[in-house]
Amino acid sequence: MSHVLAAVAWPYANGPRHIGHVSGFGVPSDVFARYMRMAGHDVLMVSGTDEHGTPIQVQADAEGLTPRELADRYNRVIVEDLHGLGLSYDLFTRTTTRNHYAVVQDLFEGMYRNGYIVPKTTMGAISPSTGRTLPDRYIEGTCPICGYDSARGDQCDNCGNQLDPIDLINPKSKINGETPKFVETEHFFLDLPALADVLRQWLDTREGWRPNVLRFSRNLLDDLQPRAITRDLEWGVPIPLDGWRERTDKRIYVWFDAVIGYLSASIEWARRTGDPEAWRRWWSTDGQGKDAQSYYFMGKDNIVFHSVIWPALLAGYSGEGARDGEPGQLGPLNLPTEVVSSEFLTMEGRKFSSSRRVVIYVRDFLERYDADALRYFIAVAGPESNDTDFTWAEFLRRNNDELVAGWGNLVNRSVSMAAKNFGQIPAVDPAGLTDADQALLAVARAGFTTVGDLIAKHRQKQAIGEAMKVVAEANRYLSEQAPWKLKDEADKPRMGTILHVALQVVSDANTLLTPFLPHSAQKVHELLGGTGVHAPMPVIEQVDDLDGGPAYPVLTGDYTQGARWESVPLEAGRPLAAPKPVFRKLDPSIVDEELARLGG
Ligand SMILES: [Zn+2]
Question: Whole-model pTM?
Fold first, then answer.
């Protein structure tokens, strides 16, 4: 058993999340965490909403809200959506907690003391008429990279590149239209070149990464420049240095604070358990966390933050770069074991776009369909290692032909037949098992090794394919053995044996599918007469800020109960529940209905 950190990308709290967001990292990280727990590892799965930065401030201004009010709204929406999908976070929190501020400031100070954060004079914008600093969000101009004519001072929303206000072509103040004046101003930079060697050594020792992720990360190291980590902005974490702490016009850049969330959320989780040092088992390079593993899940547009910036922060804080230094007060910290990046999901051949209504939000999806239907689609057809298209026709086909006609049918016919003829799990005939019986049981047992190894290697598409092969074998077995023909009293012992074997394989396949389909796995467990928790589920709790800030909802749960990753022999004589369908067959008309909802 080891300690496994599942660190999941932080959704930005400026709107509801669509299924593209949860397909890349939300559901896959949950599948991984559930499997690792079932296999006996001590898993800590953390994330939260990312709530600082210009886009939230701009949107809040437009709606007449404070940034915090806007973040409160979408934090709650996102927490409820992730809960609806059954994502088993130990803690899903947010970046506006006082705990997060304190941890971010501690990392900043530690890096600064070690010389990896350096002040640098750059050109900042001021308003010529007032002489005051002009925050990034109040400057607009043409993007120098893609030519988009309303790029903001810190970012182009069209091409997604990060910008500096001085890069904009024809910059204008959004307040009064005047052309800003650029004057010398001081900002803080992360000295990435001083950390390049330690990053290269770390990348050279990585094993099992998706090749494109490793290649992309190595290429990023070839051209490392110091990177600004503070901005002219009011909404964010204050800079924790004398002379800066009280300034309201300079803040730590949102991406710097958001990546630190993995650590601050782990610390918050530990503080909430009553053992404030417990986070060290997943993080400290010395002592308890020495053999811990950490897996970071994200979309490919976020690789740079996880394979360069975050390990650079961890190394610099631990005193490991070219300038050496001493570890900060949290002690030396583990660098990521693996960066697990997914590709993009498109929608009916187009990029997701909220403004063009090429989108389906998680909430709307869950109002009309079951969470496991989406989880199944993501597992078999998600953007694991290629860009992938979501189409309603394919969703319908996967749901009806595979989930309902394959797995649902196997569960339904074996449980119904056993319930009707025996009312309980039938016993194996003393005459024993045939070769066909033994062969099927062996296929199911072998699945625990095959499927488990594939999930551990982040090859979930292949993993669920192997689990569904067990289902297909069991369906073929039932068709060949045709227990429904064994109606005579003399044949009943053999019928019982066949159904016993089939139910045992249903139970095994259900365990193999539990990380992917936890909601239905619980139902199948109960159909087989099982009691108690088979697949633990997250809960939403309203909690107080640990350090006196406003209360907020978190996603958390007790995942210590539940099935283990092993075949559990079914006891003959256990009463069977009244059978009912586990999955819903969808009417083909949903395809046209859903397409009509999409914008043109
Ligand atoms: Zn652009």
Answer: 0.95
Between CA 352 and CA 348 the distance in angstroms is 9
In the prediction, which pLDDT does 280 show? 97
How far, in Å, is the centroid of ligand 1 from the Cα of 152? 9
Q: Which residues surround ligand 1, an ion (CB under 5 A)?
A: 143, 145-146, 148, 156, 158-159
Q: Is the pLDDT of residue 348 over 90?
A: yes
Going by pLDDT thresholds of 50, 70 and 90, the confidence category of residue 25 is confident
Query: If DSSP codes are grouped into helix, strand and coil, which group holds residue 36?
Result: helix
What is the whole-number distance in angstroms between the Cα of residue 139 and the centre of ligand 1?
14
Q: 590: Cβ–Cβ under 8 A, 6 or more apart, which residues?
A: 368, 392, 396
Cα 548 to ligand 1 centre (Å): 41
The predicted-structure confidence for 521-541, as pLDDT tens digits, reads as follows 999 999 999 999 999 999 999
Write down the domain spans for the chain: 3-117+189-342, 405-514+566-582
Q: How many Å apart are CA 597 and CA 600, to the nearest integer?
A: 9
pLDDT score for 258: 97
Q: What is the mean pLDDT of residues 379-397?
A: 95
Summarize the annotated binding site for ATP as residue ranges: 354
Query: How far, in Å, is the centroid of ligand 1 from the Cα of 301?
Result: 15
Average pLDDT (305-317) is: 97
Percent of the chain with pLDDT over 90: 87
Q: Can you name the CATH fold of 3-117+189-342?
A: Rossmann fold (3.40.50)
β partners of residue 188 = 119
Helix/strand/coil for 397: helix
| C-alpha 155 – ligand 1 centre gap (Å) | 8
**CATH code assigned to 405-514+566-582:** 1.10.730.10
**Binding site for Zn(2+): which residues?**
143, 146, 156, 159
What gap in Å lies between CA 24 and CA 346, rounded to an integer?
11
226 alpha carbon to ligand 1 midpoint, in Å?
21
Model confidence at 600, pLDDT cuts 50, 70, 90, reads low
Q: What is the pLDDT of residues 213-235, one digit of tens each?
A: 999 999 999 989 999 999 988 89
Q: Is the pLDDT of residue 1 over 80?
A: no
- Distance of alpha carbon 335 from alpha carbon 262, whole angstroms: 12
* Dihedral sign (CA 536, 540, 541, 543): positive
DSSP one-letter string for 449-498? HHHHHHHHTT-HHHHHHHHHHHHHHHHHHHHHH-GGG--SGGGHHHHHHH
| Cβ pair 195, 317 in contact under 8 A | no
- How much is the mean pLDDT over the chain? 95
Kindly give the distance from the C-alpha atom of residue 173 to the centroid of ligand 1, in angstroms, as a whole number.
18
Annotated binding site: 143, 146, 156, 159, 354
